[in-house]
Predict the structure.
Amino acid sequence: MDDLVGIILAAGEGVRMKSRTPKVLHRFCGKELLRYPVELLGKVGVDRIVVVVSRANQDAVQDLLGDSVEYAVQSSKTGTAGAVESAASLLRGESKQIVVLGGDAPLVSEESMQGLINGHVENAPLMSILSGIVQDSNGLGRINRDHGSQRAVMGIIEASDDLNRDGQPVEVNAGVYCFQADWLWENLARITPGKGPERYLTDLAALAVEQGENVAALPANDPAEVLGINNRVELANLEDIQRRRIREHWMLEGVTISDPSSVMIDTGVTLGQDTVLLPNTILLGNTSIGANCEIGPGSVVRDSSIGDDCRVTSSAMENAVMESGVDVGPFSHLRPGAYLESGVHIGNYVEVKESRFAAGAVMGHLGYIGDASIGAKVNVGAGTVTCNYDGKDKQRTIVEDGAFIGCDTMLVAPVTIGAGAITGAGAVVTKDVPSARLAVGVPAKIVER
């Protein structure tokens, strides 16, 4: 939308979070809170976004968002009105409408935001407010409507000033607004401070009514959308709502979750049809899982890719890749750089790091493979360890196609085991083994087969 720009308010100190991390940078279902409004505005077609930051969090926010947005600095505690004023030098005269939202309300949906924008553009009030009907206002400002047939918006009453709540459902302010841009810039200076130095953007609603103009309030599709985050209790409560939404989405897309309350899925995760998530499974970050997989129980998968027809039983993966038809576990660990090609089997108590297993390779039990290339159809026996660290540098092990690595073999890198070669049980291999030869002993020697 060329005639609409966005302002995200992200300069608050977040004192109630009791954290060294700025509030808007706390993670919510796998990504920082501030990413949610930025991505939301992008989804509804707002291409130009200004994020209002404080001097204290400016560097951290810019490290997160880079040059995908513009930045304005709110230099002092002047409230939400002052925050929007901080963007005036960038945006005055640049658009017809402005949408403003906070950086700490991640549940606002694309549908509600699009409805608010569409209504604002079509009906042209000076100010449009996203609202929600809630039973517990929880410190949120109330939309003040008149009692006539039109139920016109008269203003927003801040929670601290609202003494007439009687426990009935109430329409509250979500902190998401659309404004006619020229009117906004002309009237921000007319907002006066309250009891302290802060000036509130919400006062613009009553100011517009005083000028004889209309203000619109559109209830969100889900009352939970109005909820923001001020402390870690609210962070946890809202995350619980969002994780339930995520699970329900994937179940409706054809994923089976046998015990939903025990399963955690981040917002960046994708899942294929007919995949089954067993209890106590946690899927984090940018994880993708194909069709017809079984994950769990008790598996943790982070920033990893899993193909179709795979199984991960009571095991952990991070920054790892499994092609189709791979099974892992129970109680194994794929660390960053692990890559398992189609048909690989990794059994119990195996750790793999920075290593690739070619198609059909097998390691059934108990061992460590690090900084290695394991060829196709290799059998790696129980207790095998790649001794990849010489005290200074990491060294690589290469096991070529069809080799057989006997139980309790120590592969002292750098070393290569040739195609079809065999190491005897308990061998300590310190030198290359030629193709189709047998190495046994400590240190291992080549013997006739």
